[in-house]
Write a structure and sequence with these properties.
alpha+beta, 85 residues, single chain, globular
């Protein structure tokens, strides 16, 4: 998941929204893939706060990349999946 805090090694920080410039806590996971680059089962993820969920979902959906939108809690309860990043 896209989180600068986890990339920097600070795993205690809450995941944040992937929208440019947003520092709000993530509530949603947008699972997607680019069929020109990824196998059909591959899932990349963006995180979204309440405010940016619709905008980010629309961006991916217009390109036919969006596969699923679920709450962060639900996504985390599933455990790590193959090839998810």
């Amino acid at each position: 998941m896209n989180s600068p805090d986890t990339a920097a090694g600070n795993t205690a920080a809450a995941p944040i929204c992937s929208a440019k410039g947003c520092r709000a806590d993530a509530v949603w996971v947008l699972a997607w893939n680019n069929p020109k680059l990824h196998t059909p089962e591959r899932r990349k993820t963006w995180l979204a706060c309440e405010e940016h969920r619709e905008h980010l979902s629309s961006f991916l959906d217009v390109r036919s990349f969006l596969k699923e939108v679920v709450t962060l809690t639900e996504w985390e309860s599933r455990g790590p999946g193959p090839d998810a990043s």
